[in-house]
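It is worth pausing here to work through a concrete case rather than discussing structure prediction in the abstract. The textbook approach is simple: state the sequence, then state the predicted structure, then interpret. We follow exactly that order.
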Amino acid sequence: MNEATFIWSEIYEEFATKLLEYKNDRKNLISKLQNVYEEIDMKLSKMESNGEILDIDPFTIFGLFNKGITDDNRKRILGEIAKQFNLKNKVPFSFGGIPLVNNLRSTFFNFAEERGENDINNLWEVFESAIRYADNPTQGNKLKIESTYNNVIKQKGIQWNITMGLYWIRPNTYINLDSKNREFIIKQKILPEQFIKEVNQFKNVPNGEQYIQLCDLLLEKIKDGQYGYRDFKELSFIAYERNMSVDTVTQHNTQNTDIAKNTILYGPPGTGKTYNTVMYAVAIIENKKLEEIKKENYTEVIDRYNKYKEDGLIEFTTFHQSYGYEEFIEGIKPVIHSDEEDETDIQYEVVPGLFKKFCDIAGKPILRKEKCDIGINESPTIWKISLEGSGENSTRTECMKNEHIRIGYDEYGREITNLFKGAAGRHILNYFINDMSIGDIVMSCYDCNTVDAIGVVTGEYEWHDEYPEYKRLRKVNWIVKGIKENIIKINNGSRLSNPTVYKLRMDLSDVMEIIEKYSKNTIEVEEKKKNHVFIIDEINRGNISKIFGELITLIEPTKRIGQTEGQKVRLPYSQKLFGVPNNVYLIGTMNTADRSIATIDTALRRRFNFKERLPDAEVLDGIYVEDVSIKDIFIKMNKRITVLFDREHTLGHAYFLPLKDAPTIETLANIFENSIIPLLQEYFYEDYEKIRMVLGDNQKDSEDKQFITIEENDYNDLFGDTDYDFEEMSTYKINSFALTNIEAYRSIWWEV
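Step two, the predicted structure:
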């Protein structure tokens, strides 16, 4: 890295200083800010429940362009800010080392009805005192920043994000201590031991005295470069851009791999297409260059590949002529439910296909553990629950008061062994008793449009006889209750349906936003950053247009979820919105010699990078059976095939690789009998004269060396001395003797 990496700090510091002029002129500041976003046709984040902007603090202004947006949009915002505020420094081309706030919490204050009277004023005070101390580090200015800082960290919604805000405005003075930086500092153990201990001891954000002491301590220790970091900007850059995981899986969002989002490996059979998908997949998941993986021992690579496959990071499927949209994306399928008495119930359900399920998992948000102290799983299931139907009722009131949920079907009793003997509501009971887990989220349905409470499941299934009805119970921690939140929009435009319990297919981030709106809890949601790889073997065997459907647009790199042009489409069966996450990579293989293939249309070709895999004779270098060079006969046969047919129907080197471990005539004979000759029969439609030419049989001086011999037919002997009006033809047969005759192979390369 060089100084240009951190060129952003110049305009950031200048803008921070400029904002001080508006401390007591905030109406004008808000007007200028609105002008900025109007000019570039971008929407401002929602800052009040009614959508208005009543007041604003300087850290929030910085947070608006230091969140999960593209660098291009960040440049657009800064470019217009520079115009509106008459900044002298140029808009940076690099934003290396800039930490980003969560998109759901880019503001540093809460809605007016929830924030304290002086919350925004306090943020201005710490902002001003931080600049004063950074520019003039006197004892008086130090005491002022410590004092104003302490006032701010008492406010709702302020935790470690305040250190990020201070870093933005003066990155040479204040260290950012968000989760990434803290993890880096603690795990790397290459900073001063005293500093590591100080950071590690804080479970909550340190007070002003502790924080300023930390900043001063580290600045003093690293200024000579002995720890590998010249300043806080370099430390932040490395913490964000390097792999901080103890394992090989990348935990950050940078793309170090040189593999395209959509790649097809194509070539003749046996050229290592499927073999290479292993290395491609591992390189993608570990965010490494492909050549770096190719240098490793293949056995070790395949072991990691299998582990990633077990972990759900890799999915493998093979296309065929009957493969359809229903298997790939979603379809309506009959689902048979059987009970213990073999009674069956057929229901038609919308079932997600393999690729949709994979994308749902890859794109599912997770919760940051260190921010979530209310018992929610990292990837919880979200449940709809009806408490004695809709509207106000005694069961709902009791459940809210006593922190639990209750459902009925009491007639089946406490035990659940007979649950599936034709029981009405058996699926609901199975959800409630077996599928619902501690740490899942429940949303209490008030009516078909709204929920009145959101909670976290804290207990296993229980039966309570003391209740006259609705005896089935699970303990719940109600995070928010007494609300009336319309969820039609986040429920894919659908109303809540009648069943008492069922899984909701909404985004976790949307639920967290509701919780944040009504709760004191600050819960950060982040997109999964591990890359996922979906491999399609024999991609050209399927009807591409039929299988991909509307997905043909969604797989474009620029149309992925999270990209500027990201798109979702409403699926025809489920009517749910679906898009392809940005961390999903597609790898296909295509056998160019397969005559049963479907054509790859222009639309698909435009969206994939094509990497040709050709026969590699060098792989066979040094392999001999007796004194016969396998490499030489391989080259000779492929030259003949290229002339007689084309290069897309040549022989792959993989067919001959078993000879590395077993260079015997028996192994060679098996390869020719079971692979090479049948493949040539397929290629040349059993035109045995051409097959003989490929094998050099037409040049051999003895039938003992010919793999395919010619037997002339005596037509008079076969059919009698009669007139026949068809052309006399020779009969060809495979010569078993030649297969075990080393001279037959030596004579393939007939120049010897």
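Step three, interpretation. The chain has four domains: 3-241, 247-363+527-613, 376-518, 617-746. The chain has 29 helices and 22 strands.
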